[in-house]
Amino acid sequence: MIALLAAAVLTLASETSAGQPKPPLAHATVPARGDAIKVGGDLYALHCLACHGDKLQGTPQAPGLMNSGAASVDFQLSTGRMPLEVPGTEPMRGPPSFPRDQIDAIIAYVVSHGAKGPDKPAVHSNGDLTRGRKLYEENCEACHGATATGAVAGFGWLAPALLQSTPLQTAEAVRTGPGIMPKFDERVLPQADLDALAAYVDSLHHPDDRGGYSLASAGPVGEGLVAWIAGLGITVVLMFAVGETLKAKPRG
Amino acid sequence: MIRRLVLALDDRLGAVPFLRHALRKAFPDHWSFMLGEVALYCFLFILASGTYLTFFFHPSAHHVVYDGTSVPSLHGRTMSDAYASVLRISFETRAGLLIRQAHHWCALVFAAAIIVHMSRVFFTGAFRKPRDLNWTVGLTLLLLVMGDGFTGYSLPDDQLSGAGLRIADSIALAIPVVGSWVAYLFFGGGFPSPEITNRLYAIHILFIPLALGALIALHLAILWRQKHTQFPGRGKREDNVTGSPLWPTYTVKSLALMAATFGGLLLLGGLVEINPVWLYGPYDPWTIASPAQPDWYVGWLDGALRVAPPWAMHLFGHTISALLWPGIVLPLFFFGALYAWPWVERFVTRDRAYHELLQLPWQNPLRTSFGVAALTFAGMLLLAGSDDIQARLWHVSVQQLAWFYRVGVLVFPPVAAAIAWRICVELQSRHAYEEDHPARVVLKRGGEGGFEEEPVPTP
Question: What CATH number has the domain bearing residue B110?
Answer without folding.
Answer: 1.20.810.10
